[in-house]
Structure formats: structure tokens, C-alpha cells
UniProtKB/TrEMBL annotation:
This is Small RNA 2'-O-methyltransferase. It catalyses: small RNA 3'-end nucleotide + S-adenosyl-L-methionine = small RNA 3'-end 2'-O-methylnucleotide + S-adenosyl-L-homocysteine + H(+). One of its GO terms (molecular function) is RNA binding. Its EC number is 2.1.1.386. Its cofactor is Mg(2+). Gene3D superfamilies: Vaccinia Virus protein VP39 (3.40.50.150). Belongs to the methyltransferase superfamily. HEN1 family. It comes from Panurus biarmicus. PANTHER family: HEN1, SMALL RNA 2'-O-METHYLTRANSFERASE.
Amino acid sequence: MDKNFQEELTQIIKFQPPLYKQRHQFVKDLVEKYKPKKVADLGCADCSLLWMLKFCSCIEVLAGLDICANVMREKMHTLSPLPVDYLQPSERSLTITLHHGSVAHKDPCMLGFDLVTCIELIEHLEESELKKFPEVVFGFMAPSIVVISTPNSEFNPLLSRVMLYRHPDHKFEWSQAQFQSWALETARCYNYSVEFTGVGHPPTGMEKVGFCTQIGVFVRKYPQTGESVQSEKPTEAVYKTVFKAVYPSLKDEKYLQNAVISEVIFTAQIIKYRLMSKREEYGDDPERKSKFQPSMDCFSDYLGKLVVEKNMEPFVSGNEVYIPLKTIFAFPKVNRLCGTFEKLCKLIAGKVTLSSDGSAVMFNIEHEEN
Ligand code: SAH
């Protein structure tokens, strides 16, 4: 390569978005494609990839592992649930755990994952660790997908300020041929297939140099069931758990109950409000007190359709307003939350004031009317 041309390039190669973001986006795209439920990030460093992945709604278990506890601690608080997560618990469950340990050691907490990511990790491993790494990841953990990224040394001459390696802690940096032969041999040994790609395109006309970051995506060729894995691989725990967050979820009966109670009361209040407005408008005249007539908003329209059916009409008796549970259950959000009418009754029992036969939510309006 012409030296001047190379120097010119050295000045202009700046990746946009930055390379680390492109790597993380690559993983996110992979998650969206394969929809893994359990994802482990090995060499998770400051947890920034884990933080990005916690927003992927298919993921229910996220784990991070790093040999340096301090680097994980720096930002691990960003993985904790926020107040909004408690106010509006998600439908999925999500547990995030961080472990302190080495990828050269096996620990049972790393079993049962669907996707394992090793982003810019292997080049930080000592020779002895790199030797053990395939057995731990592909032999022991054996997830259905493994993604490994590492610098492509052929790209280095195009980057400014790269002396020997891109980072002082790198133990090696491989050419495309070196990475591919290691990856193909590993895949062959553990019965995986592997495809190569990367992020950080080379400049036009220099495609042979390859991507700045080379990536191997390994897919397990044999099926495996979660439970058999754990029982077949008894191993002592060696990692130390440094962080664990269990997100509030509607899968947890406690949060589901709260959500259902709030939604039932909210829906009943709106129905009551509409009923009272109609009464004010038409008085008690039975001729004029038409049932819920078509109105301008869809809630009333919906309610109007519902009350056509017998037993679903809210009514006033003395100082009490009764909103049938069947009516409330017919509203999409309540319906989706509870699934069955029996479940609705069970979840609100003793928590919401009901009519004596338990068929309607009851409000006393004595003081409201005065
Ligand atoms: N994956 C991150 C950071 C990579 S830097 C990202 O995408 O930005 C490499 C990380 O691997 C460092 O945090 C380092 O502490 C960790 N590491 C190095 N050797 C390790 C080992 N044997 N086991 C686990 N983590 C290791």
C-alpha cells in the first residue's frame, strides 16, 4: 500500500456510529432474529451491552461474567429496576445477575443459556485461558448460539495510533485467517457451525483487509433440553455473584394482583362516572333515560355495546352504584391481565368492595350526590 495513501486513510477512518456501538447493535440484531430467552455476556466489563439487552422483550434471564469485579461494579446500578418498572410491571419476567469469575472455569450458574456473547474478550485471555475457553463455552455451557468478536489485525495499519495492539491488555490480535482457523477448529470439535462477518467496513477498494472487528457466529448443530444439561453436568460453584436484580413482573402473582385491582377500580370508576352523567342529563325519567347512547368517545361506545346484554348493565339502587364484574371483565385490559373470569374474581376477592352476591363492584355515592 502506498505509504502516503495509508497515512491519509489513517486520518479519516473514524467509524460512525463508533465501533463498540456497532458491535453491540450487531448482538441486538442477533437477539431480535433468534429471540433467545437466556443470554450470558462473557467479559461484560461495564455492563453496557447487558444494559442494552435488558430492553429486548424476549429476554428473561441476563447474566454477565467478568474477571474484574470493579469494572462491573462501576455501572451495575444501571441494571436495577426503575420506579416505573414497579409502577407498570412488565408482562415478561426478567432477572439480571452479575458474576465475578473467569471464562477459564466452569460454574453451574452458566448452564442453560440460549445465547452466549463474547465481545472483544478472547484477545484479553492468556494462552492457558484461551486453551480452556472452548471447553467451557462450547463443551460445558453449550448454548444454541455463541457470538465471538475480536480485532482483525489486518485492519490495524489503517487505524491511527495503533502500535503493536489496539489495547495494552490485548495478548494477541489475529488476522482473518488466524481467527477463522481457530473458530473452524473449535466449531468442528464441539459440533457447531460457524459463519464469519464483522462490523467496521474497510474503505472502498480495500475490501480484502476485511472488517475492523471480525465476528464469528456459532450455531449448535445438535438439540439440547435445558433440564438434562444441569443434571448431567454436576460442577462446583466457583463464581461469586456480585449483583442480582429481579424485575417486577405480572408473572408474579403479587404484582398481577395489584395491577388487576387498579385496573378494575379504574374501569369501574369510569363506568360509574358515565352512568352518573347520564342520570344527571336525563333525570329519572324511564322513557328518556335511554341506555348508554352512542356518544363521542369510544369508551362509551364500547360500554354501550356491552350493556345491551342483560346482566351487564350498571345500575343505581338507593345510595349504591353497581358495576357488574362481567362488564368490567369484558374490557380488553382487564381481560388480558386476568385471562379468565374466575381468575379475576380470585384476584380481587377481599380487596375490592363487591355486592353481597359478589357479582358487581359496589360504590356508595351518598356523599358524592350531596
Ligand atoms: N465485552 C465488553 C468489553 C471487552 S474488554 C465490550 O463489548 O465492550 C474485555 C473484558 O474481558 C474486560 O472487562 C476484562 O476484565 C474481561 N476479561 C479478561 N479476562 C477474562 C477472563 N478470563 N474471564 C472473564 N473475563 C475476562
